[in-house]
Amino acid sequence: MEFDFAEEQPKFLMLMYGLIAFVAVVGGLLLLLDVVPAWFARRREAQLVAASASGAPLPRRTKPREGLFALFFLLPTVLLLLIGLVVPAIRTVLLSLMDAESDNWVGLANYTWLFSEDSIVRVLINTLVWVLLVPLVATSFGLIYAVLVDRVRFEAFAKSLIFLPMAISFVGASIIWKFVYAYRGEGDQIGLLNQIVVSLGGEPKQWLLESPLNTLLLIVIMVWIQAGFAMVVLSAAIKAIPADIVEAARLDGVSSWQMFRQITLPSIRPALIVVVVTITIATLKVFDIVRTSTNGNYDTSVIANEMYNQAFRYGQNGQGSALAVFLFILVIPVVIYQIRNLRQQREG
């Protein structure tokens, strides 16, 4: 297959125009953020010098002017949020109330379809299983890692190995684990899991074809990735526990389990909440792992993957948008809980 530059030239032109627009917008914003504050500072300095030389009272900043100054800095962010978040969200909600071609209003029919179609109910159940298991298991492993490697020899090296999966994309991690689960009929197996089963006298299996086991095996990939993140955050929280509290507990003769349950866990509770919330949001949005490993087949699909299928593969814009809105609704309580938790920490 030969590459025809002339045929692909329009795509390169679009890419070039996009890069130019990006550089122009970002460069313009950075220039404004550098020039405007400097101009206001010079103007303020000139006013102070003039007032000092004439013996007049120093000019005071007026609140309306400060408000305009703050608005100037907030305006680019507000515009970007409107263009990239608010407007698409409103449009998605409207599309979810329309038919597949987005021509006619169908009301809540697409949302009724979510809970009446058996295949979509399976998708919702799979998503629920992901959300229940991944944050709990990943945080638990991260906490165990953090406690075990705390202040031991080669701590930095051990943490680097545990955190390494976070440096791999979800697609890359899924490809790695597909080799682990690989199946090759009879004889020698190229998949690590099947080779272990064969060496123990068992029969190799096509692991990703058996439901609901395949969903659990996909969850293992997410846990493998997120456990390193949990370990880093929780390890930092453990190291932040005041040394005098730890020493006082040891002088009182508490056991290792009592130290963990009565000192470590209460002290790192805010970090635990942050880790669980962050992993929960990432799990709700999971797409790459399912898409790469099974393409959502064999009863493994989740909301994000099904949303893509309905909107872009099957041309069902209304149903795909309804799934997107439903996913957004699921994320909202988690975000609200995190905001309230952070506010309580500041007030405390």
Straight-line N-to-C gap = 65 Å
Order of H and E elements: HHHHHHHHHHHHHH
Number of helices: 14
Q: Output the structural class.
A: mainly alpha
Q: Please give the radius of gyration in angstroms.
A: 28 Å
Query: What is the CATH architecture annotation of the largest domain?
Result: Orthogonal Bundle
Q: Which percent bin holds the helix content?
A: over 70%
What is the CATH homologous superfamily assignment of the largest domain?
A: MetI-like
Low-pLDDT regions: none
Label the overall shape.
globular
**What proportion of the residues form beta strands (DSSP E)?**
under 5%
User: Main β-sheet, in a few words?
Assistant: none
Examine the coordinates and then state which fold CATH places here, giving the name of the CATH topology of the largest domain. Answer: MetI-like fold
CATH first level of the largest domain: which class?
A: Mainly Alpha
Number of domains: 2
Mean pLDDT: 85
The beta-strand count equals 0
Describe this structure in words.
- It is a single chain.
- With 348 residues, the protein is mainly alpha-helical.
- The chain has two domains: 11-109; 110-347, MetI-like (MetI-like fold), CATH 1.10.3720.
- Helices cover 76% and strands 0% of the residues.
- The chain is built from 14 helices and no strands.
- The protein has helices at 5-54, 63-96, 109-116, 118-148, 155-163, 170-180, 192-199, 213-239, 243-251, 256-267, 269-284, 288-293, 303-313, 317-347.
- α2 (63-96) runs antiparallel to α14 (317-347), α4 packs parallel to α8 and α6 crosses α8.
- The longest helix is centred in the first third of the chain and has 50 residues, at 5-54.
- The N and C termini lie far apart (65 Å).
- This is Carbohydrate ABC transporter membrane protein 1, CUT1 family (TC 3.A.1.1.-).
- InterPro entries: ABC_transporter_permease, MetI-like, MetI-like_sf.
- Residues 124-340 form the ABC transmembrane type-1 domain.
